[in-house]
Amino acid sequence: MSRSTLPRIRLAEATIDADDLRSLAEWLAGNPWLTMGELTRRFERRWAEWLGVRHAVYVNSGSSANLLAYAALDLSGRLRNRKVVVPAVSWATTVAPAFQLGFEPIACDADERTFGLDPDHLESICRQHEPAAVVLVHVLGVPAAMETIQELQDRYGFVLFEDSCAATGSRYDGRRVGTFGAISTFSFYFGHHISTIEGGMVCTDDEALWELLLQLRSHGWANELPPARAKELADAHGIAPFNRRFTFYVPGFNVRPTDLGAYLGLRQMEKIDAVVAARIRNHRRYAERLGRTGTLAIQSNARAEISSISFAALASTPSHRERIARALSDAGIETRPLGGGNMTRQPFWRARLHSVTLPMADRIHDTAFHLPNHPGLTADDIDFVCDTVLGVEAE
Fold first, then answer.
1. Which residues are annotated as catalytic?
2. For an engineered disulfide with 169, which of 131, 181, 276, 312 has Cβ 3.0 to 4.6 Å away?
């Protein structure tokens, strides 16, 4: 079979397989509880144990997870001002809650190696603005420069929020990402490391933040809190026993998941380690093939084990990227830009704040492209993708 007749190589493939669907159908035939219930709590406990945190709160999407993380920090009373550093290279709903909840977002440029926060620019922002919080994204699964960022946290006293939505299973110095910050988020969307159709998780070791997350997820009431804590709140506010289940302590949302999603999540946890191992293996092969060329720049972090959601590279110029994209498309290989690129160039940002000069974020915006990484890829698939990319000459 010639390469031209091979099936299309997609950026992402479903992680919910036929066995998962058969098991789900059998479960549904028993007329189970479908809305948020005991399976949700089991999935939360399983995820927290796997990640290595005390608490996990399952929600209906990774974007909702980010929204709740912002809201919990906002209500926690531990932010000294409304200034929050956000990564210019990120995702729309990593940044949007800062606007929606009335924060003052300050964009940080990207690091030329990890594409995450640039520590030098972050330090400059900290000196000038003294932000209360810093939002960090492990871009496409490549861990940020955590040692330097933690040193800055110690020096400037900001609260750290990790968006790990594309980084399930990645490690920095042997430690899983999503365990460094006061709060972290993950996504279980189609094609991510594991999937619950839609879904996300907010994680923390902090008891007070966990209680806020439980309330914020469900309207602002205390029904999901441990009973003793719910009673303590009701007593403190003088709430009559008959009214307690319908008392709202914080301005909440309804971003609850379903037990149907949690059922799938528990199934996915049975194979998560194999999925992570495959993504790490694939990422290494891409890095070995594409890291040797002088015409492409790739993400890297020598201290990290990278379980990426896609492999990203930078072309030499925007026109070089266009020709690479065309060659990939002609070969039946999906590609795309790196998320939304520089968020400060997106219309929602420009409608609210002035443009800023962010050289590395602009370079990523103009020249970055994704390559497929999922467990279904073979070594030959990755070599075919790499050969296609390397076959396009730079200017």
1. 192
2. 276
Compute the distance between CA of residue 325 and CA of residue 391 in angstroms, rounded to an integer: 12
Distance (Å, whole) CA 217 – CA 203: 13
The tokens for 59 are: 């929600």
**What residues of the chain score a pLDDT lower than 50?**
1-6
pLDDT of residue 395: 75
Report angle CA 81, 82, 84 to the nearest 5 degrees: 110
Residue from 114, 145, 163 nearest 287 by CA: 114
222 φ, ψ to 5°? Answer: -105, 15
Cα distances (angstroms) measured from residue 258 to each of 127, 191, 254, 261, 262:
44, 19, 12, 5, 6
Q: How far is CA 391 from CA 188, 314, 329, 387, in A?
A: 35, 15, 13, 6
- As a whole number of Å, the CA-based R_g of the chain is 22
Q: Which is it for strands 159-163 and 133-137: parallel, antiparallel or unpaired? A: parallel
Nearest of 276, 71, 243, 274 to residue 166 by alpha carbon: 276
60 close to 257: Cβ distance less than 8 angstroms: yes
What is residue 7's predicted lDDT score, i.e. its pLDDT?
Answer: 54
pLDDT of residue 239: 97
CA–CA distance, 216 with 386 (Å, rounded to integer)? 45
- Residue 283, CA distances (Å) to 64, 71, 328, 345 in order: 28, 34, 18, 29
pTM given for the model:
0.96
Cβ neighbors of 52 (< 8 A, separation 6 or more) are 176, 179
Residue 268: what are its φ and ψ, rounded to 5°? -65, -35
Give the ranges where the chain is alpha helix by DSSP (H): 18-29, 38-51, 62-75, 92-100, 119-129, 146-156, 207-217, 227-237, 259-269, 272-290, 318-330, 347-350, 359-367, 379-390
